[in-house]
Design a protein that fits this description.
By secondary structure, the chain is an alpha+beta fold. It contains 19 helices and 34 strands. A 7-stranded mixed sheet has the order 3-7-1-16-13-14-15, sandwiched between helices. Strands 11-19-18-17-12 form a 5-stranded mixed sheet. Helix 17 crosses helix 18. The longest helix is centred in the last third of the chain and has 28 residues. The termini are far apart.
Length: 806
């Protein structure tokens, strides 16, 4: 054997395929400031748009006077709802089956709602014009507290729905009611509670928060009057969906609409839906014949674009005295704001909240969700989670800790007693899901061993004794969280958006020289798709990842896809990529058989090419097969080497994890210190361990922000009091704890490469781990449940109410 012949290990390493810690190729441009973002786009003659926004949360719009605004140098037009009515664009459909004002039509329903759109030659002139528009308002009663939204005397918020007793998701039982959604066996669950030896009941609220990506929402619209074509560059997590929505709203033929998502500075669900800025910029471009740019500022982003959470969950668990759970009952009051603009699959008005049984073997469960309107901004997006899964995980994980406290059991032991066992998979939950695979006890025990959990509990007991003796003013909490997430939306049998099945897609085209391009229906906002998608292809077809270019975000070139959110990229788009690559490989095998003069069945795959079984010297590399595909294919075969795959998953995937947080809290100041945070994740097959670790670090940082301070808070008049980063907690490297990460691997049995997804998991599991740590710290003082967020002031307040502070 030639000493220069690469070994199998060297050939595998040269591919930089799955399992390799390949460096992110995107970072070459990002670290040099060469990213291409929407606001970098400058077109000849480009105009700028800015909004007049309402200072009121609920008010009648009596008049809009734009005379002085139109006198401002550079101001060209002021667009109002009356303008939009002339082209039937005053209202737009939401992804949840509701309708939403583009600009205030007769009244405003939340503070900073869009009232008028000023178009000018530059952004400064547009801002000056905004300040000159005079709007006369008649203030109306405000609803901020969701528990008052369906009171008999509650003001009517949505006058456009007057007389409508049914909505997109069934009957409405009040003028501020949107839907009631139920799942599970109520009769069987009620019976379980009647027979229960132990029960708990607690209102567990998940406060309204905001994804707050680094880059705000923005777009540039350019209408070509000659060709009748509209091009939109925007911060879109789902560009094809935006194209379809614009076509439906504007009545433009879809082939005449070109949507391009360049580099995106974070999304986290905030950039899935359509906003008034997109519609107004498009209308302004059509009217003026010039490109129009709209870029929101940070206050606009926090106060007017899609929020997350605002779920108020009355949770009950039935159990035996030994701690075996026998039933779960949950009622949710879901505050959707002024319009139902959730970005959930159409058939799931509460998203996948029915994953609320978590990782536990509940024999029976019942869930009811009531969605309501309020005078807050609309939204309800999946902020780094899969469609209300974070709310569900927080709900069940807090409830399990409350049950453990009532039973006098260790929280980890209670979980181990109730886990779904490996032999029960595929597991059918009491609320309708089919979990694909899991080994929960192994993951939990590994996390406990890594953190020396028993020693931590002993230390905690000693510290509590010292606190009671007056020797310390610090209390120690240990937060345990074990989550199962449901991701990979989704199977066409139960998932669609606007009637479009939630498949995803990939087109791979191999060039004669052995390089190739993959165009994918997903859209990265920082997940590293250009790196990991090439790794999947490298492993599948034996072409080095460096020789594969990945392209996303252009609806003219990428096959139709449903975009990136809810950890669906790897479970759905990643599967489409693998399946397209296998089509490439299958054709290459036929070419190899022809060139090597054997039957296809006589060939075997060997890392980066095909070898004749029993004759290892007869080998043809994939690179050589790419060349052959363009000059010497078998008779009757079309030349070329390319494939398209639209992947409709047979099921969701179910990543899981075990998180343990150790925290110390000074009762006199409320100041906390996260001493340790250990996160063990199981996302099935691991494509790039380095990127996984980065995703976990990012998700945990967001979980930390949510649990320990973030809240979009309103006063009684509906004013947003946390509308900037001066008030809305955004942790820096100074506040962010150190993360310890670990993993187990339980592949998904139905996914082509066994992957499950991981981008959302740390947020799903992290929030309850932090909250459980705080609640565990205060539990020995007599507390059962303290609502999030757990900032310094609320910690001090809890300590004072529990008598720990004079």
């Amino acid at each position: 054997m030639n000493d220069q012949t690469p070994t199998r290990e060297q050939r595998t390493a040269a591919l930089e395929g799955m399992g390799c810690k390949r460096k992110r190729v995107e970072d070459i441009r990002f670290t040099q400031g060469k990213g291409n973002y929407v606001d970098d786009l400058k077109l000849p003659g480009m105009l700028h748009g800015d909004f007049v926004r309402s200072p009121h949360a609920h008010a009648r719009v009596k008049s809009i006077n734009d005379k002085e605004a139109l006198k401002v140098p550079g101001v060209l037009a002021v667009i109002t709802a009356e303008t939009l009515k002339t082209v039937n664009l005053a209202w737009m459909p939401t992804l949840a089956g509701d309708v939403q004002m583009v600009l205030a039509d007769g009244k405003v329903l939340f503070q900073n709602q869009e009232v008028a759109f000023v178009v000018a030659t530059d952004r400064y002139a547009a801002d000056d014009g905004v300040n000159k528009v005079v709007v006369e308002y008649e203030p109306l009663p405000v609803i901020i507290d969701p528990f008052k939204s369906m009171a008999p005397d509650a003001p009517v918020l949505r006058e456009d729905l007057a007389g409508k007793t049914t909505g997109a998701h069934g009957p409405r039982k009040h003028h501020n009611h949107i839907f009631e959604w139920t799942v599970g066996d109520k009769e069987l669950t009620d019976a379980a509670f009647k027979k229960a030896e132990v029960t708990i009941k607690e209102l567990i609220s998940y406060q309204r928060v905001h994804p707050s990506p680094l880059e705000t929402c923005q777009c540039v619209c350019s209408f070509d009057k000659i060709r009748g074509e509209l091009t939109i560059w925007g911060t879109f997590q789902a560009p094809h969906v935006i194209r379809t929505v614009v076509s439906l709203i504007a009545k433009l033929p879809e082939q005449k609409i070109h949507v391009i998502s360049p580099d995106i500075g974070g999304g986290f669900g905030n950039k899935v839906g359509a906003y008034p800025g997109y519609i107004c910029a498009a209308v302004a471009s059509i009217v003026t014949g010039k490109p129009v740019k709209w870029v929101e500022d940070r206050i606009e982003n926090l106060t007017a674009t899609s929020f997350a959470r605002d779920y108020h969950m009355t949770t009950e668990i039935a159990a035996t005295k030994e701690g075996k759970v026998t039933g779960l009952r949950v009622h949710v009051l879901a505050d959707h704001g002024a319009f139902d603009a959730c970005a959930d699959p159409s058939k799931w008005p509460a998203g996948f909240f029915n994953i609320v049984t978590g990782s536990y073997d509940f024999p029976t469960a019942h869930l009811a969700v009531d969605g309501i309107y309020s005078n807050k901004a609309p939204g309800g997006v999946a902020y780094r989670c899969s469609f209300r899964v974070t709310e569900a995980a927080y709900c069940i994980e807090r409830a399990m800790d409350i049950l453990a406290q009532k039973l006098g059991m260790d929280p980890a032991e209670l979980r181990l007693k109730n886990f779904i066992k490996p032999e029960q998979f595929p597991y059918h939950s009491a609320l309708g899901w089919e979990y694909d695979s899991g080994d929960y006890a192994t993951a939990m025990k590994k996390a406990m061993e890594s953190t020396k959990y028993a020693e931590l509990r002993n230390e905690q007991a000693a510290k509590r004794a010292a606190f009671k003796r007056g020797e310390t003013r610090e209390i120690m909490g240990i937060g345990v969280s074990f989550f199962t997430e449901i991701v990979g939306a989704g199977p066409s049998k139960n998932c669609d958006i606007l009637g479009i099945a939630m498949f995803d897609s990939c087109e791979i085209r191999m060039h004669p020289t052995g390089a190739g391009i993959a165009r994918v229906g997903s859209k990265s906002q920082g997940q590293g798709h250009e790196t990991t998608w090439a790794q999947i292809i490298a492993t599948e077809i034996g072409i080095p990842a460096d020789n594969i270019m990945v392209e996303e975000g252009n609806t003219d070139t990428a096959p139709y896809g449903l975009g990136t959110y809810g950890s669906r990229s790897t479970p759905v788009a990643g599967a489409a990529i693998a399946m397209a690559a296998r089509k490439i490989k299958a054709k290459a095998q036929m070419i190899a058989a022809y060139k090597l003069e054997v039957h296809e069945d006589d060939l075997e795959w060997d890392i980066d090419g095909f070898r004749v079984k029993g004759l290892p010297e007869k080998f043809m590399s994939m690179k050589d097969l790419c060349w052959a595909a363009y000059n010497s294919v078998p008779p009757g075969m079309e030349p070329g080497l390319e494939a398209v795959s639209y992947y409709d998953p047979p099921n969701m995937t179910y990543p899981f994890g075990a998180y343990i947080c150790v925290m110390d809290i000074d009762v006199d100041t409320g100041v906390y210190k996260v001493r340790r945070f250990h996160a063990l994740d199981d996302c099935g097959t691991r494509i790039n361990p380095m990127i996984i670790e980065g995703q976990v670090h990012g998700g945990l940082t967001e979980a930390f922000a949510i649990a320990m301070g973030q809240e979009i808070r309103y006063d009684a008049e509906g004013n947003v009091v946390t509308g900037s980063f001066m008030d809305f907690f955004m942790p820096t490297a100074v506040e962010t704890p150190h993360w310890e990460t670990d993993f187990t691997v339980t592949p998904s049995p139905h996914h082509p490469i066994g992957a499950k997804g991981v981008g959302e998991s740390p947020n799903v599991g992290g929030v309850p781990a932090f909250s459980n740590a705080v609640n565990d710290a205060f539990s020995f003082l007599g507390s059962t449940h303290i609502q999030m967020p757990h900032d310094y002031w609320r910690n001090w307040k809890a300590a004072k109410e529990l008598g720990a502070v004079a």
